[in-house]
Amino acid sequence: AAAAAAGAAAAATTATNPTAATIAATQSSDSNVSASAGRTGAPQHPCSSCLKSLPAAARLSHLQMLDLSGWLFPRTSLLVSIVQGCATTLRTLLLDNMPLLTAADLAAVFRHCALADLRSLSLAGNALTPAFVTDELAPRLSQLLRLGLARNPALDDRAVEVLAHGCPHMRFLDLSECPLLTDRALRSLGVHAQHLLHLQVGECPLLTAGGRASLLAALPNLADF
Question: Which neighbouring-strand residues pair with 94?
């Protein structure tokens, strides 16, 4: 009875605060287990008991937010199984700064997990390739509203162009520290990302004042740029 009451309270919290549905590795609560609780400072390899508990926790159907940023997964299949477990209700997925994962590993997550209803995704600091964005992300996440791709230095204008086509409902986009981006990327966003309200492009040295001005003219509702 106590567990049922706790679950009901957590579900109510999740309805008003999506971050309450974060998955955690070191707690046993069905509704609020935080992966960040398993990390201290720099990314650490999670203990084997934590890894064993995560897939079971991830199967909880009410989970809406999953944050595994900074974790060092020993094999791709484990990450895929965790995301698969809560994919049907998942709305926010945070996989920042995961140095052991390659673009192929992340591609496996998006190929094998039904994430079409995902609304918020962050993949900052993962050395993503343009092909990953164009072939794996953009075709599968048409309902995405928020996307973080900061600190992925290989991303280029073509990746942003395809992304703008494939995710036309985006409200927030972080492309900070992607040094290959030029004004062409901004033009693509101005044409295809008409709902964009927040854009972060700090430390993108090839962007010009003219390109920024043109984007602001194309997207007058852009509040944060």
Answer: 67, 122
